[in-house]
Write a structure and sequence with these properties.
Elements (H helix, E strand, L loop, with lengths): L1 E4 L5 E4 L5 H4 L3 H15 L7 E3 H10 L4 H13 L3 E4 L2 E4 L1 H10 L1
Antiparallel strand pairs: 1-2, 3-5, 4-5
Helix pairs in contact: 2-4, 2-5
Amino acid sequence: MVTKETESGMDQALPNQETAEDTIRSPEQNARLIAVIFVHHFGLFAGETLTAVKLSGAWYEKHKGQSDLVEGLEYAKAKRWIYSVDEAFTLTEAGYQVGHEAE
């Protein structure tokens, strides 16, 4: 939520400038964003691992919800873009290509 200082000195809430596309994402779109986070946010390559804590932190910085993260992770695992290792995820070559091509 964005706030704006009024003349009286009180803060007034203003809506975010979101579009429907920003707020409604498919599991595939969420999975692609996860791949982008691996490649562009953290600079990782295929075979490198990212902890769940770091991934979720970057995800929430983008103001995305938990259900979108879970759906994206499941889609990415089903497509073999990532795989789980204890409490972390490893990026595959296919996942790297998706993330690299996305931006």
